[in-house]
Amino acid sequence: MRRRPSLGRIAVLYVTVTALMLTLLGRLWYLQVTTGPDYARAATQSRVRTVALPPVRGRILDVHGEPLVANQTRPQVSVDYMALIHQPDGGRAVLERLAGALGRPYREIADRARLCAADVPRPCWPGSPYQPITVADDVDVRTALWIAERQDEFPGVSTALRPVRTYPLGAAAAHLLGYLQPPSPDDPPGGPELVGRDGLESEYDRELAGRSGVRQMAVDSTGKVTGLIREEDPRPGDSLVTSIDARIQRIAHRALTRAVEGARKRGEPADAGAAVVLEAATGRVTALADYPSYDPEVWTGGVSQHDYETLPLVSGAVLGQWAPGSTWKVTSAAAAATAGYALRDTYDCPGAYTVGGRAFHNFDGIALGRMDMRRALVVSCDTIFYRLADKMWRHDGGLKPVRRPRDPMQAMAGQFGFGVPTGVDLPHEAAGRVPDRAWKKASWAATRTANCRRARTGYPDVPDRARAAYLKRLADENCRSGGVWRAGDAANFAIGQGDVLVTPLQLARGYAALANGGTVFSPRIGKAVVGPGGKVVRTVTPPVVGRIDVPRKTLRYIRDSLKGVPREGTAAAAFKGFPFKRLSVAGKTGTAEAYGRHDTSWFASFAPAAHPKYVVVVVVSQGGTGATAAAPAAREIWEGVYDLHPAKKKKDAGKKKTGKKSGEKHKRAR
Amino acid sequence: MTAFPPARPPGARSTSRSTSRAGARAGGFPWGVALPAAALSGIGLLLVWSATRNDPGSTLPERQTLSVLVGFALMWLLSRCDARVLRAYVPVVYLGGLAGLVAVLTPLGRTVNGSHAWIVLGPGLQFQPSEFAKVGTVLAVAAALGELRDGERRPPAGAVLLALGLAAVPIGLIMLEPDYGTMLVFATIVAGMLLAGGAPKRWFAGLAGIAALALLLVWRLDLIRPYQLQRVMVLADPDADPLGVGYNATQARIAIGSGGLLGKGLFHGEQTAGHFVPEQHTDFIFTVAGEELGFAGAACVIVLMLVLLWRGLRIAATAPSPFGTVLAGGVVCWLAFQTFVNAGMTMGLLPIAGLPLPFVSYGGSATISVFAAVGLLAAAGRRSTLR
Predict the structure, then answer these.
(1) Which of residues 251-310 of B touch A (CB under 8 A)?
(2) What per-residue string of b and e applies to A314-330 under the rule 16 or more CB within 10 Å gives b?
(3) Quick one: CATH architecture of A50-241?
(4) Which one, A332, A524, A551, B9, has the greatest CB density within 10 A?
(5) Global ipTM
(6) What is the pLDDT of residues B52-83, one digit of tens each?
(7) Which fold has domain A246-294+313-321+504-641?
């Protein structure tokens, strides 16, 4: 019977209440037992802060142990991003006080303390928000102490003595050494604070970097450290001993800079340049200078977006590619010798030689009479090489090539190591170009459509009618038969013009091979990796990657021929008064034309000529003839390397004027 | 449900003064409900101590001990009363509670943790009138619904309306604070009491309709604040904003979840020590139980509460008067709802709401009020000593 109507209702409450509590129990079981381990892991993550302890990065030393890159301890001011954002105003007040104390604008400090993102320009912090962010690393000790003493005014700001990269050579070796940057988001996390981004710093980054230590600390919810869990000391990085000679590097940089500035005084654009000094017998790099350069100190403490965009970061020595001009003739001469043209025979050097129905002129258009190959190299006769190239081309079948053309000149260029990267221990390198039949065909296929259109439409946009007609004829020819390796191509190739491209380092290694009797090295800058205790971890030896397959006497003949160039040949003016008795320098000038640009100035040399120790190659892009810009710089380097106490040079006498251009496709070289 | 008392004539008032039953023995101490409450308070004290163990100079455990003692005394005092005496004091307690709620809206009121629900009388002496108003409201509604004339089996419409009116005043005042969590507790209490009191079903339908309408209005008129909406959204996707809106919820779940089956041991919870969960000694005390005592300990808290609730429902079933039944039903709903909402929010079942865990959370007003409620429970089961 029902005593009260509410009894049934109480039962409802009974069930409801029990269901609610059972729900709680079920959820509790799910959280703690079913998924408990996940939460335990999450708890550990939120409770433990891991800080990487940066190792001291290894130094980069020159061949005598003089530092090229060193570390200097400087007081550094860092901020803790997490501590800042947990402040009511996001840390603005602290950063403003800090900027005031450092005597910097607030914006600068705040910019460095923000995290990098897609829409945040430099400077910004590309690393982890849990790492201390360096906002100033050229703080004087007193300011740093002043800040350190006022922790209550500067919460989240820390000061520490930290090693900072210094570059004793300044701009003289900027490209060679490279630079450091905070790791980008692409780098594996947990790495060092700074990673090498270019040059040796990048190539030997792993060894230089050392290993980061780890400090794991227990923290509370506000980030306050409550205890130390684990600490592992960092392992300092290894040092890199290079074959660079700081003294010669400085000399090369100075000579190159002077050569570029001198060319500019003569009205040349002279937009870039490079100087390479190699050890001829070992393939080691003694100096690698670039123009334009920059002071690597800009990297210290974060580079501004503007600096980053305007810095000349590309190294011309390994990335610059220019036609080699007459410096190339050493490979052509060697090719001629292997193809059966005796070097001691005499060849006629007319003012012009007709190839494929077109006259190819000598540099000055002057006939020099009969001469042997030595003389041809010394005075840089082009027509002899045109003729040789034409003969070889016709021997290979001319416009209808035999099945397997010998192409002796291309083959020889390959043996000298051109057309492939040298494999130097630098992160970026250009391959150069040795154009051959296959290349011609491929590039024709790529440009054919445009050429054929121009062949129809002509060049109404070119005001000079004669020129427009010439271009139209050219386009027509290229459209119809541009893929064929023609006699003109072969002729241009023979004197290092047309489509041939080399990097200064490639040319230097080619001359080193000539100088050392035919061994082609893959050059190396690094010599040894030395551990923090002075133990040699590994040694670096330039590997031999090829041999020039010609009789030693052929190379000796070419070497001996090049002795004449600075004494009586094209570089005689630049080497006027040079003490050849003390140092017998041999070399070759090169003046490469480039369409629409000023001539590229080359000088490739080695000395002592009898037993070459060094190879010196200088290039000044758009610098004029090889004799006027590059050769004097090479002379200056030689004088510096051998301490020849140069008398005040007078570079007025005997300077040759460059001739007038004789035709669009007609390359002259000297 | 087999323990219902022997049948008596419908609506009959008991005339016996010698009947003595377990939990309702005249003058006896109400162990049945006092024991689980005391056990919960004991656990609560340990947890408050643990949650504040790293706060230098904290006197919260001592203060909570004092609150528990005061609450215990009040419970004992109330348990000595019978329904008749309680009914006599209903107007005083009810109006006193309302006065407190009104006072909050005057300059006496203070905002603590975003809720304008406090009255501060001096340093270290503050209370939350809404907690005491619960006691008054439960009593008043019980009085309205529990007065059945002879032959009546259900409260008449007038009584139901009166009860709703009596409840509407404190609910309205709390809405002005605003404290929607507490408001919901009141609404649940009233609903539970209507249920226990036997109000006709159509009333529930009507009230549900009104609630739905109110919800709609709140939604359409944008009365709901963004943070409140976010608290609800976070439930759907707890990891959406772990450092912002979801921080409390995420940290609470991490603390509880990391406790595992047996917990890390009292005073050994690293999350607790690191203060990762905000308001851990008050609204989030359950996370300390979860982390340090594990499933075993936290389940213990819920089971103790369930025992208390069952005892309360048994009192509701066996109460000698409809007043007692309704009163006990109200108290049970109060404790059950608050427990469910509080523990549920720490475990990510419900949105974050500022409600304490009865007996366990730190807080003077709440502790004293729930002990008073247990006292009322005991009193509801007591047979009149006079008749």
Answers:
(1) 251, 253-261, 270-271, 273-277, 290, 294-295, 298-299, 302-303, 305-306, 309-310
(2) ebbbbbbbbbbbbbbbb
(3) Alpha-Beta Complex (3.90)
(4) A332
(5) 0.90
(6) 888 877 888 999 999 999 999 999 999 888 88
(7) Beta-lactamase (3.40.710)
